[in-house]
Design brief:
8-stranded parallel β-barrel, alpha/beta, 637 residues, Immunoglobulin-like
Length: 637
């Protein structure tokens, strides 16, 4: 039996050193053995000496660890620690300097500003989300609706004393809100341990630890389970490209480049004031892939959004000096192959987990099969769509006719990748203004355009993501250290905007034409993208059957269009199912347009047309009611 354990530990050590240990947290870090004994292991191959220090020995260096020279892993077994004790490793670096360092594999830390690890065992949970998991395995995520509510966990709501909600409290309030608002998924900005709230979680120190600022691991498990019981998926952002620069955390862990590149120019991330992982180092690959697998399995996550993929793909992405690769180009081959390996490993173990890339360039194929040369992600954030569309909506309508391509250019490339259309946190901070504040005109016109923007988001091919607070048109920029401006909902316009978002979310979730054929050009047919003089865009979203389609008509000018002609594919009657200018949403319309009978008058490539009123700065969604899908023989012009 002892020989089997020794062999298993040796195999785990070997897999870690070769980049093939995807459960490295079971070997490294702190683990409770029998009879109250704990074993601690840490990888510090070039350290002169490492000690275990903590509450249990008054932080003295009287617990020296033993080094395995073959692996560079230090180890100690001791009965001194107990659950809840704080600990670190005291490392005598190669240059003789001694420094307390965190445990890279710790699963829980003390509350900041401290950063000591906690001796902590997450109890085995008996999950109750089997129905959700089974349904997820049987369904095709690409042919299902995906409408993501992006959340910063500690600033969604605050208590009256200024303290944020924990996940125990978010389970009681956020989960019902997600269900009520008809979102299909929630995505959290990074939840892993980070020492500075101002980094929003993108400067990590604990890649296996839920930040204690948000509560306990058990509370987050309960939150995810509650989401699944309410048919809501859970995604979390994850940051494998760079890490926190604080000296007592991961940087130069043993006094030499350990987690970072040996080349100082590649190790330093000047733009973000952080350090870059050496993604070609086998031990780092084991560390990072184990982290992703841990979050997926420990918390039953439905997806991971990998942050800042461009920074891992291109050597010249940062602001500082850079060295070309062996071919003389800017490709970061280590990052490229690491990302392929990451996706291959996760998809092999969990084919139904959604892998998303936040990537801003168009030089690398991001989504699709790895065998075709892509990175193997399921989805890519469409940053081009986001930037173009927001520029357009900020523009005075007087000039929109000259820049209509900002609204329509995405139709040229929308099938190049599997896209998520993001209206994310990055667009509502640092003086960029909130989505509501970006909109042109007075307050009434701003709400009108925000409703039209959200309708375009829901009707354009691609999955959807909006940041918290945007759903009711919060005017102030997001503040990471304060709760959202929930008091806004006392205002009738904000309240009606929230109701509109709830309505358009429900329409997206239930109308198959908006997602059933997604990923195929059959999902969309442009009616008219050339009416720049009127600034009106019209297109069709198509479902699997001929009769299952929706007509979308967007008026981007502050002028109502009377008797406006719209090409339709079939003879028959058409019914308005959504008008963004209805009074219930904050507009002035009290009645919908009457049903339209098609006329046998050609409109571009269509043999029939309908005529209706399109509200100023408003959008109509029209559904066929009684139609004849057989082609007409006679068409007048």
């Amino acid at each position: 039996m002892v020989e089997e354990v020794v062999a298993e530990l040796k195999a785990a050590e070997t897999r870690f050193l070769t980049g093939e240990n995807f459960y490295a947290q079971h070997f490294l870090g702190a683990h409770q053995l029998e009879n109250g004994t704990y074993v601690f292991r840490v990888w510090a191959p070039n350290a002169q000496q490492v000690w275990l220090v903590g509450d249990f020995n008054d932080w003295e260096d009287n617990l020296p660890m033993a080094l395995s020279k073959e692996s560079g892993i230090w180890e100690i077994e001791t009965k001194q620690p107990k659950e809840g004790d704080l600990y670190k490793f005291k490392v005598r670096k190669q240059d003789g300097r001694e420094l307390f360092k965190i445990d890279p594999f710790a699963i829980y830390f003390e509350k900041r500003p401290g950063d000591a690890a906690v001796v902590y065992t997450i109890p085995n949970k008996k999950w109750r989300d089997g129905l959700w998991q089974g349904r997820k395995k049987r369904s095709n995520q690409f042919k299902r609706p995906m409408n993501i509510y992006e959340v910063h966990a500690s600033s969604w709501k605050h208590h009256s004393d200024g303290t944020p909600y924990t996940f125990k409290e978010l389970t009681k309030e956020l989960v019902p809100y997600l269900k009520e608002m008809n979102y299909t998924h929630v995505e959290f900005m990074p939840l892993m341990e980070h020492p500075l709230g101002r980094s929003w979680g993108y400067q990590l120190i604990g890649y296996f630890a839920l930040s204690s600022y948000y509560g306990t691991p058990e509370e987050f498990q309960e939150f995810v389970e509650a989401c699944h019981l309410n048919n809501i998926g859970v995604f979390v952002d994850w940051v494998p490209g760079h890490f926190c620069i604080n000296d007592d955390t991961l940087p130069y862990y043993d006094g030499t480049p350990t987690f970072e590149y040996a080349d100082p120019d590649r190790a330093r991330n000047i733009r973000w004031g952080s350090m870059n992982f050496d993604l070609g180092k086998p031990e780092v690959q084991s560390f990072l892939i184990s982290s992703a697998m841990f979050w997926i399995e420990m918390y039953h996550l439905d997806g991971i959004r990998v942050d800042a993929v461009s920074s891992m793909l291109y050597r010249d992405y940062d602001d500082g000096p850079w060295t070309p690769n062996h071919e003389g180009g800017n490709r970061n081959f280590e990052g490229y192959y690491f990302l392929q390996k990451l996706n291959a490993v996760i998809k092999l173990a969990h084919p139904d987990v959604v892998m998303v890339a936040e990537e801003s360039s168009s030089e690398t194929k991001i989504t699709g099969m790895i065998e075709t040369g892509s990175l193997g992600f399921d989805y890519k954030w469409n940053m081009g769509w986001m930037n173009d569309v927001l520029r357009f909506f900020e523009m005075d309508p007087l000039y929109r006719q000259h820049h209509f391509n900002l609204l329509t250019f995405s139709f040229m490339y929308m099938m190049d990748e599997n896209y998520i259309l993001p209206l994310s946190h990055d667009e509502v901070v640092h003086g960029k203004k909130s989505l509501m504040h970006k909109m042109w005109g007075d307050r009434y016109k701003q709400f009108s355009q925000l409703r039209t923007l959200f309708t375009y988001l829901m009707c354009h091919p691609g999955k959807k993501l909006t940041f918290m607070g945007s759903e009711w048109g919060q005017f102030l920029e997001w503040k990471y250290d304060e709760g959202l401006e929930w008091v806004d909902l006392d205002d009738d316009m904000n309240f009606k905007m929230q109701h509109f978002t709830q309505t358009i979310n429900e329409l997206y979730r239930t109308e198959k034409a908006l997602w059933e054929l997604e990923g195929s050009w059959d999902t969309i047919k442009i009616i008219d993208a050339d009416n720049t003089n009127d600034s009106v865009l019209s297109f069709i979203r198509q479902g699997k059957t001929k009769k299952d389609f929706l007509i979308v008509v967007m008026n981007l000018a502050p002028v109502e269009r009377q008797n406006f002609a719209i090409g339709v594919p079939y003879k028959g009657t058409y019914t308005e199912v959504l008008n963004t200018e209805m009074a219930e949403f904050g507009g002035t319309w009290t009645k919908h347009n009457q049903d339209c009978e098609s006329l046998p008058i050609a409109f571009k490539e269509f043999e029939q047309q309908i005529q209706t009123i399109v509200p100023a700065l408003g959008t109509l969604i029209i559904r066929p009611d009684q139609i004849n899908t057989r082609k007409s023989k006679k068409v007048s012009k």
